[in-house]
Amino acid sequence: MIGATALRALVLTAAFFAALSPATCLGENSNRLPAKATKELPPQLLSLLRQKKMPKYSPILVRVFKQEAELEVWKQDTTGLFKILKVYPICRWSGDLGPKLKEGDRQAPEGFYTITPELMNPNSDYHLAINVGFPNSFDKANNRDGSLLMIHGDCSSSGCYAMTDEQISEIYSLARDSFLGGRPSFQVQAYPFRLTPANLAQHRNSPNLSFWKMLKVGNDHFETTHLEPKVDVCNRRYVFDAQAPPNSPYPLVFSPTDKCPAFVVDSKIARRALEKQRTDELEFARLLNDNVPAAPIYSGLDGGMNEAFLAKYLVRVTLAKVMPYASYLPQLPPIPWVTNDGSLTSRWFGTSFSKPIACDLARSSFLSTVVEGDDGC
After folding, report:
1. How many Å separate Cα 73 from the centre of its chain?
2. Nearest-5° angle of CA 100, CA 105, CA 110?
3. CB-based burial, 264-291: b 16+ in 10 Å, e otherwise
């Protein structure tokens, strides 16, 4: 009889073989998975999983921050919540702060991306690679184009998030094991920087500010619940953790370019995110009042590198000049930081959060208690 682990390995191998045809992103296809794609996690990382009570095959979630040049891997522990497993310094990313807009702009993407097994490239020329899936439905709805945007090895980037080979080996194996556990996908959240009031205030003059504030809603959902936010797109915008209104006779259907349908957000998620948003708004307003220095809209530099690699890869520190990013950046309709009732979040969550909700770690419990809100569109 085949053991459970061996059976999972066979299933994964079959899945990779089935998916190799579309995974031609950075390397040539082959008929066999290379050893680097089936390599076991290092003993130190396996020990860390045990210490943090994270099952080897539990789901993962990845967060990327350009300005800090850091990639976080979060993993679901035995409570069912995502907790931070490891922070990897990014060896190289390219472009400027801001989303990718068009093929050849060298921009590393920003947004919410869903990674499925066919986006894993075991035969990459850059050791191993994970295609982030750009353009997603939001990118397409906003006429953004490009292809082959990766998290990969070799510390060399042209629109990608480049790690060292050792780092991508661990990240790739963690993603592979998440699929082995039965999870059909995992989420990548790519940000320009940690979306703190201080960073947003520093970049208050950027034409990307409304886009970043929209990303912050999903960021706040995750940071306040430690649950993967459900992501939809409508009216050319991201929508997070949307549910059909109570007693709605119609299923909730989103079209990326059409007006958003009426939806609600579970009151437990909304309340926690609202509290964080209000606190952050107050801090943001204080920083503006103090007239903290603003960062330049355009850096003129092609990406960055975590300081941990500066000495090792000194020759790669010289950054090429890129065209002024703001010169071809289309404007999204502005999102006001503060609405008439004093909170941006009322547009997305509604204003009634008085109903007490019992704490339940299971995602399914969120369906039982909802709060009515605007469609936000």
Report:
1. 11
2. 15
3. bbbbbbbbbbbebbeebbeebeebeeee
Closest to 267 measured CA to CA, from 361, 373, 369, 368 = 369
Query: Is residue 258 pLDDT above 80, yes or no?
Result: yes
Q: How far, in Å, are 155, 180, 218, 312 from residue 112 at the CA level?
A: 23, 22, 9, 31
Closest CA to 267 of 362, 344, 354, 343: 354
- Residue type at 179 in one-letter notation: F
Strands 70-76 and 264-266: unpaired
3-class SS at 273? helix
Q: Enumerate the active-site residues.
A: 152, 160
Is residue 231 scored above 50 in pLDDT?
yes
- Give the pLDDT confidence of 6-18 residue by residue, as tens digits: 445 444 444 444 4
Write out pLDDT tens, residues 34-88: 999 999 999 999 999 999 999 999 999 999 999 999 999 999 999 999 999 999 9
Residue 203 CA to residue 334 CA, distance in Å, equals 15
Tokens of 128: 């191993």
Distance CA 177, CA 372 (A): 38
CA-CA-CA-CA dihedral for 339, 343, 345, 348, to nearest 10: -40
pLDDT of residue 322: 53
Across the chain, how many H-helices and E-strands are there?
9, 15
